[in-house]
Amino acid sequence: MNLKERGVYKWVRQELSCWLYRHEVELGLTCLAPGTDQIFAVLCYHQHIPFRFIQPCENYLSAFQQKDQEQIIFLAQKATATVVLPIKEVSEQAYLEGGIEMVNQCDCLIAVWDGFPARGLGGTGDIVTYAAQKAKPIIHLDITEQKTVELT
């Protein structure tokens, strides 16, 4: 989602930064998608928090424009590890599997989300639902109301 068009980029960045600062995060997990995933990775890097790149499929970069590919490559080089899921092509199923892998590895999910159901398989709504089913704590940065809520 385009946070700048929604006018919430600075709010999201500030909320994530403050949350990371206040909590003892040992490892961040991200798929490095443009937007929130990249904001999170940059904040982890600047706050000296190691992060792992969960790459949803082998051809992940092909889903993005050149500028976004360059940023993903740059941030992937800063990651302490990369986990490439055994899926060849970019697909909604690959995105879903990437989100599931993140939830399976995390202690807490931070969801920057408008609260609506996923617009496609593997969207934020699907990942939040999966995390709730797994009884993972969920921190919801509600971009509609610009408030942060603990869901579980």
Major beta sheet, strand line-up: 1-2-3
Largest sheet: 3 strands, parallel
As a whole number of angstroms, the C-alpha radius of gyration is 14 Å
Content of β-strand: 15-25%
Unreliable residue stretches = none
Shape: globular
Number of strands: 6
Q: What does the average pLDDT come to?
A: 95
Distance between the termini: 24 Å
Q: State the order of secondary-structure elements, H for helix, E for strand.
A: HHEHEHEHEHEE
Q: What is the count of helical runs?
A: 6
Q: How does the helix and strand content classify structurally?
A: alpha/beta
Helical residue percent band: 40-55%
How is this fold's topology laid out?
Elements: H1 3-6, H2 9-22, E1 28-30, H3 36-46, E2 51-55, H4 66-78, E3 81-84, H5 92-105, E4 109-113, H6 124-133, E5 138-142, E6 147-150
Parallel strand pairs: 1-2, 2-3, 4-5
Antiparallel strand pairs: 5-6
Helix pairs in contact: 2-3, 3-4, 5-6
Explain what the structure shows.
By secondary structure, the protein is α/β, with parallel strands linked by helices. The chain contains six helices and six strands, in the order H-H-E-H-E-H-E-H-E-H-E-E. It has helices spanning 3-6, 9-22, 36-46, 66-78, 92-105, 124-133; strands at residues 28-30, 51-55, 81-84, 109-113, 138-142, 147-150. The strands form two sheets. Strands 1-2-3 form a three-stranded parallel beta sheet, sandwiched between helices. The chain has a three-stranded mixed beta sheet with strand order 4-5-6, sandwiched between helices. Helix 5 (92-105) runs parallel beside helix 6 (124-133). The longest helix is centred in the N-terminal third of the chain and has 14 residues, at 9-22. It is globular and about 35 Å long.
